[in-house]
Design goal:
6-stranded mixed sheet; 17 helices; 14 strands; single chain; alpha/beta; 5-stranded parallel sheet; binds cytidine-5'-monophosphate
Amino acid sequence: MLEKIRESIDRIKLLSRKKEIKIISHFDTDGITSAAIFSKALARMGIKFSLEIVKGLDENYLKQLDESKVLIFLDLASGSLDYLKTKNTKMFVFDHHEIIQEIPENVFIINPTLEKFEKLSSSAICYLFAREISRENIDLSNLAVTGMIGDLHDKHIGRIFGEILREGETIVKKGFLIYPSTRPLDKTLEYSLNPYIPGVSGNREGALNLLREAGIKSENGRFKALYELSDDEMKKIVTGVLLRNNGEIDEESLIGNIFLIKMFNKLEDARELSALINSCSRMDKPEIALGFCLGNKASREIAEKIYINYKQSLALAMKNVSQIDKIEGKDYLILNAKDRIKDTIIGTVASIMSHSPVYDNGLVIVALAYNQDKIKVSARVVGREGRNVREVLHKAIVPVGGEVGGHSNAAGGVISKDKEEEFISELRKIL
Ligand code: C5P
């Protein structure tokens, strides 16, 4: 893959002398961090470009793309190769989603799933591209780490990820996976929704009780942050959380790698950064997320406000879930939220549901939300094993038409609103 990355640099440099460059990137954390890395790398080479952040690709969007430009897709397009084939221009795809269609001749694709390569996020692929251009770009490694965490590559640190972590001087610490691990623990516990800790989340007195039981005291009115705890204190906190969950959560899921990186000269938890970037896009402000990643101070202030609003919207959406009728089968649950949950939030809602101890391992959750004349579909599987939900969605979407893509345990798609009933019926048959 590194060889192909070098080749892509030469090709892009050459083409940029004759044609304008347009970058199109996905709106989630991995897509935004990819866009920030790629933009900085091109700008530092003096290459001009335009950039657009999109929720996804569909036929109409691809049709109207200007063929006089070189098109570079980040964190998307692996599922849209049949459409790209019809475009009369040179295209580059830097992506990590599964490829099921033939690669057209006019598309130069860099995707670790094509080779026996370590699993990487698109931001990490874009970082390798930037680093091949110049070692000066290793200051972008923090963004690559944030994208890796945003796409849940936190459990396994392979060779390339290890290199990126070292280059970013990232601090990796084993501990309780509650974030942000960099803020006083009383607040982090009180505001924690994922995991939800009964009697502690949303309950200040409960959070203080848990700290008291673990023997953690405040100093000068301030509690330590999670990353400052000793191993013994960390163990006591986890035991306290397990006791409050009546054995419904396993210890393994509460413990993992905490990644601390420097951003705006402050030590930050990569999970928190990822959540903040993601929240801006979900609240229809991807340009603020991008500004934040590029180090813009004004964007940072706005992003922090949006993040607070987003958490409130998500809490409301989760409350709505319990009131929405669900179609429940033996191994599946379909939540048709219609216009009661925003299309940009429905994927996160499906993810939170899939992590809930309420549902059995292997259950397929498919959530639907309206977006004007379209329906956004998100599918997840509870636990680590189960059906390949990208295949399930693909089968159900083919007969009704629409877009689909993703991974075996998390996939998404878009269909036309007038196909709602037909799609649900196809889906039920398949499930
Ligand atoms: O949108 P949602 O969060 O449900 O998507 C789950 C996964 O599927 C994400 O990794 C997303 O990038 C991918 N996806 C895709 N093509 C789509 C929709 C989602 O590759 N059309």
